[in-house]
Amino acid sequence: MSTKKVPLRQCIGCGEMKSKKEMIRILKTEGEGIILDATGRKNGRGAYICPSRECLKKAVKSRGLDRSFKITVPKEVYETLEKEMEQLVGQ
């Protein structure tokens, strides 16, 4: 019997490899811009981050989203993501 492979993703903040289910997906879409994808199934370019404030701060400092999406991400987007992440993790 073969065991099912667990998909791993790298956090844009801390750089750790973790299972896809443990992380939060940040998505770049054409119409909506940069949003959190709670379901993990929306179409668009995705980047993953650990559900912690420290990782988000590291991602802001190291410009992790800029590198992942190959664009300059405004500071307002990071602030919006921080608020959305607090709501998502707080549930």
Give a quick summary of the entry.
The protein is an alpha+beta fold and 91 residues long. 35% of the residues lie in helices and 24% in strands.
How much of the residues is beta strand, in percent?
A: 15-25%
- The CA-CA distance between the termini, in Å, is 37 Å
Q: Helix count, per DSSP? A: 3
User: Order of strands side by side in the largest beta sheet?
Assistant: 4-3-5
Task: Let me know the largest β-sheet.
Answer: 3 strands, antiparallel
Record field, number of beta strands: 5
> How does CATH name the architecture?
2-Layer Sandwich
Question: Unreliable runs, pLDDT <50, ≥5 residues?
Answer: none
Please identify the top-level CATH class. Alpha Beta
What is the CATH T-level topology?
A: Hypothetical Cytosolic Protein, Chain: A
What does it look like?
By secondary structure, the protein is of the alpha+beta class. Helix content is 35%, strand content 24%. The chain has one domain: Hypothetical Cytosolic Protein, Chain: A, CATH 3.30.1230.10. It is globular and about 50 Å long.
What are the salient characteristics of this protein?
91 residues; alpha+beta; Hypothetical Cytosolic Protein, Chain: A; 3 helices
Describe how the helices and strands are arranged.
Blueprint lengths: L7 E3 L6 E3 L4 E6 L3 E5 L7 E5 L3 H10 L1 H6 L5 H16 L1
Antiparallel strand pairs: 1-2, 3-4, 3-5
